Amino acid sequence: MRCYTFTIFDTYGDGLSSFYGDGDYVIKDEDGNVLASLINVYFGYEETNQFCLVECAMAADFDITHESTSNSNDGAILISVTAGNAPFQYSIDGGQTFQNSPLFEGLTAGVYQVVVLGNLGCTIEEAITIETIVANNDFWKDHSIKVFPNPSESGVFRVEINGVKSQTFC
Are 117 and 91 in contact (CB under 8 A)? Predict the structure, then answer.
């Protein structure tokens, strides 16, 4: 956090008040948030305003455990904050609800909108995908089944079966 002191001087001694109307000032950050503004238009010869800039340098690592089978509810996300101002709050629903623990367990396959909220109001936002593990299994020599892509955003999968002879039934 960097803090500053803004001092405005008036040689006439009437602050920002004049015969033509009252003046003002506003100091904003790059996002338009007001950091300091005129407190009293009749401040006399000088007015001092102190303000600070919050530096949001946050970073995190995400460890993901994918769901072992469909609807097994055994997926997990572990969030390790590597930079930022503690204490932290953690969410996997886009910031609707938060918890103190960085571990989320019992998850199904899907996309989770992870938000980490730091002590100074800084945030990290990340979309984390938990997948259902689908294996390529060799049932026996020269026979295999492959299902892909995994995950499928459109819900359409390709199934490739090798080693099975086609048969015609009447």
Answer: yes
Tokens 């819900």 sit on residue: 155
For the stretch 103-148, pLDDT in tens is 999 999 999 999 999 988 889 999 999 999 875 444 455 667 778 7
At 60, list the tokens: 């995190």
Single pTM value for the model: 0.55
**Residue 83 CB-density burial (10 A; 0-12 exposed, 13-18 middle, 19+ buried):** exposed
Alpha carbons 75 and 109: distance in angstroms, whole number: 7
